[in-house]
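Re: that chain you flagged

S.,

Sorry for the slow reply, it's been a week of failed gels. I finally had a moment to sit down with the sequence you sent. For the record, here it is as I used it:
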Amino acid sequence: MSVEDTIVQLNECFEDALNAKVDLNNVKNSYEIEEWDSLGHMMLISVIETKFNIKFNIQELEEIKDIKKLISLTNEKAN
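Prediction finished late last night. Pasting the structure tokens below so you have them in one place:
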């Protein structure tokens, strides 16, 4: 899966989990997305894990501090 495909699918995850239309190409961190709070984060991770058929471990979850890391980690695990 290409990074571009991952971004498209992650945009869908944000819409499904947070009911937020997001363009990850224009967002740098979670603070820019109002709906992405601590509860939203857990909902988002759950949707991502289901959509991509992956699992994040605790260390990986702690590493997700910005959009770039979310994209790269998701793409890495999905491939």
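What I noticed first: The mean pLDDT is 92.

Talk soon,
D.
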